[in-house]
Amino acid sequence: MGRSPLDWLLLGPPGLAVAAALLLLVLCLRARRTRRPGEPPLIQGWLPYIGVALKLKKNPLGLLKTLQTRHGDTFTLRLAGKYITFILDPFQFQSVMKNHKQLNFHKFTNILLMKVFSINSLATNDGLNDKLHLCYPRLQGRFLDTLMENMIENLKQVFEPQLLKTINWVVAEMFTFSHSLIFELTFITLYGNFPADDRKKIITELRDDFLKFDDKFPYLVTDIPNELLGNVKSIRRRLIKHLTSESFLKTQGKSEIVKMRQDILEKDYALEDTEIGAHHLGFLWASVANTAPTMFWALYYLLQHPEVMAVLRDEIDHLLQSTGHQKGSGFSIHLTREQLDSLIYLESSILEVLRLCSFSSIIRFVQEDVTLHSATQDYCLRKGDFVTVFPPSLHLDPEVFEAPEEYRFDRFVEDGKIKTTFFKRGKKLRYYLLPFGFGTTMCPGRFLAVIEIKVLLIALLTYFDLEIIDKPHIELSFSRFLFGVQHPDCDVLFRYKVKSSS
Ligand code: HEM
């Protein structure tokens, strides 16, 4: 005779364990969903809720490659309670852009901004996103010229104390070094400078807090409660306090974009001070969090390849001499954007690093059921899911980039210009490098980011001798998979000193 569930429970702990296992199994089966006709292949994994998240975390590229071979260029994964459709065929990317009404960017980012920076106003103020978008032209055109001039001027302040001190070799950790330079230069260029007496102390405190906060970023984007993430809440509160209107007034020389954002948040929307600070933290994070690791990888690859460093030094020296910069006349760089643009090998080396290390994906929330059409196949996407265009599979595609795993600093140079034509299946690609996203939501700070890395590399290569000390085999850590430029899995020691001729 069969036993009732009650009988099992009455059998004591072993019975309870079996009952719990059965209950779990029922929950697993209920939580699994069935693929509807027209939907992409569905990979749910066996773990309830988690799906294939752990597998993806362990070996992201390996798993996606295996799934691509097995299921084709489009498939849906269950990841930590969400269903995300990956689109890997570059000729299908356009279909996501075309359906921007059904595939919403801000629905996704608003949740993220709330979770990570505790920005609450975007979910309730419909027009605020559009208003803030009106500020982005202040990162382009003549505003970009001014930002660049100020950045070069600020370089002096960031470098001069070091220049004076480093007549002998100084050993440093490369990631920490790159992050410090980017943080300080970005902060003072966008948010202005503090009075001289407090400057170093405040910037150091801010930078240390920012680093600790950024370390927690991969956890903040998950559903893990903030309370389980150490002191992240108090660090965020301190950072926000530093960026509230009250502290804001203390800095001199703010950029036009930051002033305009402040006006909108303060005057048009009369937001509370902490909410304004949270918005500034979000913007500061966007301007530093990807630029700093890009700077690290750009420097790392150069120091690993002294022959490349020599080519770039030559290119830079040539430009500096032809634009009247005198050797041995102290720290002075004055360049226009056109002159900076003429450094094509330097630019190509930065693009190459973005190709190898950026794992930003373009994520959209599916607001209503929609069919994506393409030349090869149509796919139905389900309301409530997410869809992501995943550029790394393109960046590492051997059909597009020969030996894609190799660092080739001049990969983006052709006939003395930046190369823009790449092919797949014999067809010219509209999109071949997408570290900054695409379409209307494309990163508004992309020009400033590249300028900043260029001027920092120019300063480092011109005024310093640089050598890598240990040559460990470092890898991408993948802790920010889907969310931008990856950090290295460990830091690297290098040494620097001022060149004797500077
Ligand atoms: C190497 C450095 C950088 C990388 C790789 C990068 C990458 C990205 C990506 C992938 C997006 C999302 C695009 C999308 O989903 O369509 C984005 C958005 C954004 N980025 Fe950047 N970024 C960098 C530097 C910067 C800088 C320097 C700034 C500011 C000065 C900035 C400001 C922003 C802002 C404000 C957004 C949100 C745009 C929106 O709301 O539509 N970024 N960035």
Automatic annotation (TrEMBL):
Which InterPro entries does the record associate with it?
CYP450_sterol_14alpha_dmase, Cyt_P450, Cyt_P450_CS, Cyt_P450_CYP7A1-type, Cyt_P450_E_grp-IV, Cyt_P450_sf
Q: Which of UniProt's keywords are assigned here? A: Cholesterol metabolism, Endoplasmic reticulum, Heme, Iron, Lipid metabolism, Membrane, Metal-binding, Microsome, Monooxygenase, Oxidoreductase, Steroid metabolism, Sterol metabolism, Transmembrane, Transmembrane helix
Its annotated compartments are: Endoplasmic reticulum membrane; Microsome membrane
Pfam families for the chain? p450
Per the UniProt record, the source organism is: Erinaceus europaeus (Western European hedgehog)
Q: Which protein family is it in?
A: Belongs to the cytochrome P450 family.
Lineage here is: Eukaryota, Metazoa, Chordata, Craniata, Vertebrata
Question: In which pathway is this protein known to take part?
Answer: Lipid metabolism; bile acid biosynthesis
Q: From what superkingdom does this record's organism come?
A: Eukaryota
Q: Please state the gene responsible for encoding this protein.
A: LOC103117318
Transmembrane domains' residue ranges: 6-29, 431-464
Cofactor(s) recorded in Swiss-Prot or TrEMBL: heme
Q: What is this protein called?
A: Cytochrome P450 7B1
